[in-house]
Amino acid sequence: MSEYRLPDGTIPVLLSADTDDGLRAEGAALLSYLEQHPPVCPDRVADMIFRTRVARRRRALAMVTNRAELLGAVRAIATGAEDPAVVCTVGTASARRVGFVFPGQGSQRPGMGRLYYEISPAFRTKVAECAALFEERYGHVQPLHYLLGNEGRFADVVQVVQPALLFQMIGLAAMWQAAGVDPAATIGHSQGELSAAAVSGVMTLRDSVLVVTHRALLVAEMSPGGYSMAVLGMDREECEALLARHSGWAELSVVNSPHILAISGDRATIVDTVATARARGRFAKEIRVAYPAHTSMVVEIGRKVGNFMGDELSSCHFVATDIPCYGATLGTPLTPDLQHAEYWYWNLRNRVRFDRAVVAAAADGIDTFIEVAEHPMLQLAIHENLSLVPQDPAAPPRDIRVIGTSLRTATGLSEFTRNLATIAVHDRNYRWAALRTATGITLPLRDFPATRMNPKKLWAAYPADPVERSAPSAPPPQRLVESWERLDRRSLVPPRRLTLVDHTGRCGDLAAALVIAADRHGATASVFDVDAATADFDTAVILLPPLAQGADTIAEVATFFAERTWLPAVDRLRPGAECWLVTIGGEAVVDSDPVPQLFHGSVSAGFRGVGVERTGVLLRHLDLAATEAGPDQAAKIIAALHTKGTNEIALRAGKVHVKRLVRAPRAEDNAAGADLGHVVIIGGTGQLGLRFCEHFAKAGAGRITLLSRTGGSDSAATELRGIRARGASDIRTVRCDVTDADAVRRFAGDCADRPVTLLIHAAVNYVDAELTDITADLVATAAGSKIVGLATVLRSVPRAADCRVLLCSSVAATLSGRGQILYAVTNRMLDITARELREQGVDSVSLQWGLWSVAGPLDAAGFARTESAGVYPMDPVEAIEVGLTQQWGDAVVLSADWQLLNEVAGMYGQAEVFSSMALAPEPLATPVMAESIAAASVPSDTPAHEGSFSTRMLAELAKVMGADSAESIDGSVPLVALGLDSLQALDLRKRIKAELDRDLPVAAILGGASLDEVVLLMAENSH
Q: What is the C-alpha to C-alpha distance for residues 370 and 993, in angstroms, rounded to an integer?
């Protein structure tokens, strides 16, 4: 049976609704059910709810251990009463942006981490990782002993205390993340900046451990000088006046908030100043910091800090990540232009401006601040600083929350669990799956009450013809070529927890090298174990062994996609995670690359199709050079796997290259210059084959032979009569199954006196199968005439010395779709085959055609589906003109709305290939439009200004959905949950473009965005 547990061991039972009345109704229904079904336990109820329901805006989370507690909690929810086991939303759940706040020194005590180390696996694992890094460099683990309170095994000195505090905060952050709370930003106070930097990924954990220790060793030289610090509850003017009347030395060193400051100086002055402040009725307290932190006195060790760490750090600069780290040294995010040596000197010397860091984070959208510490230290300061955040007077007050982690007096994780519950019920995007501790097959509970829906009608029946839906005019097809560009500057994601999938058992050396290299990068890596009950990884890396060029490609494809022994690792990834496929010699990136290995070159095309089917996980591809041993470049591979925002990359000579599609330059050499004495078209009586027949008949071909497995349909025969009537070519239809070697040999004998001068391979074996439906037989079917038949023809049929070969591939080889895995694979094989033929001296090209407007494997529903993704059917005459008369060479011929295609491809992590083709957002038409979009930050449930952007958006949405009124649409609910489908999203996009001259982010809508989020996203993109 599936089990869900909160960190303190209680069972989470979540009830939710759209209104307070609905929440009480949910409680009443569940209470009635429980009373009528006495055997049902909390575990079964929790499992049933999490498996079958989506958490809605009003939430109540019951945290119980037994049936009696569950009954009491549910009864309280049903009646609106309070219960200590229930945490409810205040207002409604919304998309929250969490900031982890890491305090500085002052709260330390021996044994501060023992409780969490003994109870929390996540805390224990991360602290052990920190301790291992420390021991490797310094040869002892005194900070760990201090953290656990192991008597007699540590010294209470700064070089032990500060690393122990870092261990503590890193472990507590891991505890939050394991419980489903991920930071959108981190904020660091003094020494806490090192923990914040490690968690955000702007520096590695190893580097943070080294820096905190060397930093502490340097300040230890100043500690015996009789210094101290104190916290004062007064404003800056009063503090400076107090210091001005004392003859000793002390400086204002910390500004936590306008009325919470700290001073550093010689201890006698600090003690006397504390006494004076208390005598005046002000809060004042000496804190345990034995060196003059954040004062001019630190200049004494400036030179030593300037030579900071030598070359021990993995980088001399911070790195760019998706999680900004706000440092109190400058009050701004840490950026790659900052050097470690210089910055950490500033961090010791400069006055701490925690107030600026909090205000900056809140101004950038952080609305939930979690203090990652054993006991709250900074919450008063955070609250006071939030009053300084600029507010739009016309907007409603922001709901900003400040939450702690636990209490110094805690004896278990109940305090942490309650704080977690508060986050979970208020965050619309909280990962409830993080609470799942065991998996299994559980039968549904019989007669379990259905979800209580809001009886208010959201929209009327869709009108028969609500608007005139004229077909959009398709953009003209364009000719694109594949280009690999060296990525000289790139952003990196924070260090990852990698699982290496060696499903073939032939990549052991590479996996072992990657495990070692990951540790040096600050990441972790382990080989995937399918039998492990739980797995601590956030990224899967599927390794493929090198293969010779003559390997049995069809068998390898069948093994990979039909047996799917690598799939369990993908299924264990949480939404938003990445899965990398690592191929070897699968791409032609630089001039020195050989022809791509057929399996490695084609498997990635099908892998992209898997990504379309599993939209929760981003599937990416890394290709290694066939001429470079994988284990030797393990460090470069690990770094490449941390590249941000790229789905198709290759590693050559240690350099990262990215794949792009770019517009092809025009050239004189084209298919019109080919010898058209004898044109043979494989698949000649299919719709595509007939289009080529007509084209070359008009071009004056002497003979055109159409090879067909069936001999052609009646409609094909009718069309051929028309083509013959309009041209002078000798057009023949030959019944020949190209997968039948005997049939091909017979045809070869018939044309011995007239060799082929232009061979066009237009056969299609379209197999529509999603991943779990693929079998070895389907792989063989897909590769039949497409690959095996082509090889048979090339081997047997006589060709003229200057014969050209045109292989008709599909854009599916570059942009796969649902059910197109095998279609993508086989078409990519054609692309590689064209390169192989050229290597053999055959004048061959492969053209990836987009969608044709003629009927084929994709019916009308398929046309609609591809149009909603930005791909349009091409007129055959226009497409062939672009493909065959502009240039003779490998290319993609495609008609698309590039910006929309880029957005939709981005949902599956595939946008970067088309990024150079996507149009930049159009500028705002008028200043008035800019003002109206700026007003879009007003939530939809507040009165909007007449004519504002959000109001007009809502009106257009109501028209598209056929709603009886705009007010009936809840702006906080995902639009797809309201029933908006991809075609309606496309319709809405056209309306918004026509009425408001703005581009709607369709990918965000299809990805689950609400109207409120779409409006805000468009407002952000307008600046």
A: 41
For the CA atoms of 812, 818, 820, 825, the dihedral, rounded to the nearest 10 degrees, stands at 70
**96 contacts 432 by C-beta, under 8 angstroms:** no
175 alpha carbon, distance to own chain's centre: 22
- How many Å is the Cα radius of gyration of the chain? 33
pLDDT at 462: 38
Q: Which residues 6+ apart lie within 8 Å of 455 measured at CB?
A: none
Contacts of residues 570-574 at CB distance under 8 Å and 24 or more positions apart, as own/partner, are 570/540, 570/610, 570/614, 570/617, 570/619, 572/535, 572/537, 572/540, 573/537, 573/538, 573/539, 573/540, 573/616, 573/617, 574/431, 574/433, 574/434, 574/538, 574/616
pLDDT of residue 239: 95
In the chain, what is the straight-line distance between the N-terminal and C-terminal CA atoms, in Å? 50
Largest CA distance in the chain: 114
For strands 352-353 and 368-371, give the pairing: unpaired
- At 91 the pLDDT is 86
Is the separation of the CB atoms in 818 and 613 below 8 Å? Answer: yes
Measured at the alpha carbon of residue 962, what is the angle toward residues 959 and 968, in degrees to the nearest 5? 90
For position 479, what pLDDT does the model report?
92
| Nearest residue to 872 (alpha-carbon basis) of 883, 860, 882, 863 | 863
> Crossing angle for the helix pair 714-726 and 687-698, nearest 10 degrees?
10
Q: What are phi and psi of 961, to 5 degrees?
A: -90, -5
User: Does the reported pTM lie above 0.70?
Assistant: no
Write the CA distances from 361 to 98, 108, 390, 939, integer angstroms. 10, 26, 12, 21
CB-CB contact of 242 with 255 (8 Å): no
Q: In the numeric block, which tokens belong to residue 465?
A: 């013809």
**Which pLDDT score, from 0 to 100, does residue 270 have?**
94
Element (H, E) at 98: strand 98-102
Residue 129 to residue 110: CA distance in whole angstroms: 20
Q: For residues 936-963, b (16+ Cβ closer than 10 Å) or e, as one string?
A: bbbbbeeebeeebbbbbbbebbbebbeb
Residue that has been written with the tokens 């107090």 in this structure = 242
Q: Which two tokens stand for residue 789?
A: 């038949």
Task: Please give the structure tokens belonging to residue 395.
Answer: 């907007």
Non-local (6+) Cβ contacts of 507 within 8 A are: 500, 543, 544, 545, 630
Distance, CA of 908 to CA of 903 (rounded, Å): 10
The Cα–Cα gap between 887 and 667 comes to: 5
Taking alpha carbons only, the member of 687, 682, 746 closest to residue 720 is 687
| Secondary structure letter of residue 662 according to DSSP | E
CB contact set of 475 (below 8 Å; sequence gap of 6+):
872, 895, 896, 897
**Which residues does the chain have with pLDDT short of 50?**
455-472, 857-867, 919-947
Query: Pick from 86, 2, 78: which is nearest to 34 by CA?
Result: 78
| The pLDDT value given to residue 1008 | 61
Alpha helices in 107-232 (DSSP H): 114-119, 121-138, 142-148, 158-178, 192-200, 205-220
Long-range contacts of 911-915 (CB under 8 A, 24+ apart): 911/647, 912/645, 912/646, 912/647, 912/648, 912/658, 912/659, 912/660, 913/647, 913/648, 913/659, 913/660, 913/661, 913/814, 913/815, 914/661, 914/815, 915/660
Tokens of 124: 């224990």
Residue 344's SS3 state is helix
Residue 217: count of CB within 10 angstroms of its CB: 14
Under 8 Å between Cβ of 182 and 166? no
